Amino acid sequence: MYNEPIFLKPVFKDRIWGGTKLRDEFGYEIPTETTGECWGISAHSHGPSEVGNGPLKGETLNSVWDKHRELFADQQGEDFPLLVKILDAKTDLSVQVHPNDSYAREVEGEAFGKTECWYVIDCEPGAELVYGHHAGSMLQFEEMVNENRWEELLRKVAIKPGDFVYVPNGTIHAIGAGTMILETQQSSDVTYRVYDYDRRDDEGNLRELHIEKSIEVAMIPHEDADFEPVLSGNEDLRIKKLVQESYFTVYHWNLAGNVSDVENPSYLLVSVLDGEGELNVEGGMTSTFRKGDHFIVPSTVKSFGMNGDARFIVSHPTI
């Protein structure tokens, strides 16, 4: 039986809006001074993670998913369902929207659409997100887009460190400048740009927009998602369930001591936001973790212990 966590090597993505905080704050070796994304737990073909420890060392996560489904509660489906990223938005991201599963499959040939959620790791004072819009109908939405009435159309929301934002598919959204988030999402790379501030790429060309597809998949009128965080645990491990919906369940864990018999409901995707500590599996080796680590606790580990001082975002598919 496989009885240890699966640590993964992150994949980095250069982005026009990226910066250096993934290096400065997490100590990653980033490839460029405009590195916008760390794909910490990924089996997507555009950037699969590589296992960094144990008997599966050197294999990609998508390969492990294909060959060792027993590590993932024998979950059905051709593709690993989730993707976990850390994003460094030095400047504003484009205003965008993502499709649902059926549209992504039929139009793009992707296995999944994209519902996602964000935990705000840090942000500058006064930072904002675009979350939703003010159009009351499809006709009004199209008119405001075609007339470039962006300030009137887009709904902006102030944020602070520790905030959590749930972004179902169809939600018009954008991460604002000076923000670092951890994103848990369906394993999809389909993004439709609605507006990009007339930015140009390295060759001086305006970046591609996807207005027609955006209008087809956007939620109009906008409705805020209804969810309520749930607290549990004790002083040694405080657990806040941030959201539970059809694709994933996401938690914030605050470890401040020593806990045993932490239950594993299926398989857990774990990203260490801050601190360090140890994870112990009965009959297995002790694994150390620190800020910036990403690992999976496989379903073959039914329970485990932890000690240390650390903060995590933890998720699992809702199955």
Automatic annotation (TrEMBL):
EC assignment: 5.3.1.8
GO molecular function annotations of the record: mannose-6-phosphate isomerase activity; zinc ion binding
A GO biological-process term: carbohydrate metabolic process
Enzyme class: isomerase
Active site annotation, chain numbering: R193
Catalytic activity: D-mannose 6-phosphate = D-fructose 6-phosphate
Key words, A-Z: Isomerase, Metal-binding, Zinc
Family of this protein: Belongs to the mannose-6-phosphate isomerase type 1 family.
Protein's name in the database: Mannose-6-phosphate isomerase
Annotated organism of origin: Fictibacillus phosphorivorans
Organism lineage: Bacteria, Bacillati, Bacillota, Bacilli, Bacillales
